[in-house]
Amino acid sequence: MGHLAVCGTILQTPAPGQLQILPDALVLVDADGVIETVLAPTDSDYAAEKQAAKQSGALVELPAGQCLLPGMIDLHIHAPQWLQLGTGLDVPLEDWLQRYTFPLEAKYADIAFARRSYTSLVSTLLANGTTTGVYFASIHPAATRVLADICLALGQRALVGKVAMDHPDLCPAWYRDASAAEAATETRAFVDYVHSNAGNDSGRVLPVITPRCIPACTDDLLERLGALATETGCHVQTHCSESDWEHDHVLQRHGMTDALSLRRFGLLTRRTVLAHGTFVTDADLDAVGAAGAGFAHCPLSNAYLSDAVFPARRVLDHGVHAGLGTDIAGGHDASILATCRHAVMVSRLLESGVDASLPRGQRGRPGARIEPAEAFWLATAGGGQVLDLPIGLLAPGYRFDALAVEVPGNEFDSGDVGDRFQRIVFNAGREHIRKVWVDGAAVHPA
Q1: For residue 317, what are the CA distances in angstroms to 275, 321, 322?
Q2: Which CATH superfamily is domain 72-387 in?
Q3: Prediction pTM value
Q4: What CA–CA distance (Å, rounded) separates 147 from 150?
């Protein structure tokens, strides 16, 4: 008998576009938060296991109208930008950074300020069903440690990185690392801090080597961080071909694209998360696929700051790992379920085109759309695949990160579970998320 047993109808996507419906499934979870087994009502030991869990007080039965989903995985969050959510999105990316973002991030030198902001952020993301968050912090080591501590305290699975940025051409003197050597030393110290944290024995919070983007880093810093990634095997996160400005900067400076340049510095690994990738080439996809790295597709922020649409269909067809990111605060919505529908919508716009003055056959890119079950896979199992972690699926051996979600419009339920899935993807919000577990522990409501 497991430490926890949850009974309800599971909706999940083990593969892109493959909706799996498991009615009245019984999920048995051990004391470490790992799923032992998933039983169907037709299994011979289903009734006995359910009764034993009920008698021991370990059973949670979802009421009618709720479904059990894998937890949402947000692959790209700028934690210090939480307080600028929904503001300043009227200017190009390079201006947005200088006018809005860097001045705000600089305030995280104040630890009390950082603690208030980060507590609000992590609490809100958990309430929205984000069981795993991948965070860019600021350049400040102390505030970055605070973010890791808050994720631990509130129960969220998290990957946290101290941002490294030292290039004087992009980074203002009042908000950049003093040197490449210092940035690398502080990154190493943060990696050690996370690994040695007494409350993190299970590794629920992991450190991430975080060069902000190539334009923000000197080659010296990129080389040092690449060496650190090779030495430690840590995850890596950075921006990749997000906008015309960033993509063109790297081409002019290094004579190659972001992905190929990152590979040259040792920063393209099996555990690398590339945010955006809006302007990736086929050669980039070959390189990223060969490394086993993956993309964080951020459809909402791309609409404001990239002026283009990430080719999700092409990336999936290429067999490259991919998931979803809110890109707080370039993206103004904290919900990964909402990001699913944004991903579906922008793929439709890419396929159909947007300029009505052109003939229909000339407007868009045929075959570019993704469907709801593919977007949901990106938000769950796909994100787990990018991170090389056993999350995003409710199956034996995976961590029990899960949501109990009330189906929107349940009072008008037709009985078609596929319809329930689509209503969740397209309509569910924070108010429909009734319970959130991470590693088998209930983390929302707190």
Answers
A1: 19, 10, 11
A2: Metal-dependent hydrolases (3.20.20.140)
A3: 0.97
A4: 5
What is the rounded distance in angstroms from the CA atom of residue 162 to the CA atom of residue 188?
Answer: 10
Joined together, the tokens standing for residue 180 give 């490449």
Domain ranges of the chain: 4-70+392-444, 72-387
pLDDT digits (tens, 9 = 90+) for 46-75: 999 999 999 999 999 999 899 999 999 999
Note whether 260 and 287 are within 8 A (CB). Answer: yes
Query: With respect to CATH, is domain 4-70+392-444 assigned 2.30.40.10?
Result: yes
CB within 8 Å of 67: residues ≥ 6 apart: 8, 9, 10, 11, 404, 405, 407, 420, 421, 424
Q: Are 52 and 1 in contact (CB under 8 A)?
A: yes
Closest by CA to 272, choosing from 134, 403, 377, is 134
C-alpha separations of 104 from 60, 77, 117, 164, 302 in Å: 43, 15, 11, 16, 21
What digits encode the pLDDT tens for the residues 349-373? Answer: 999 999 999 998 899 999 999 999 9
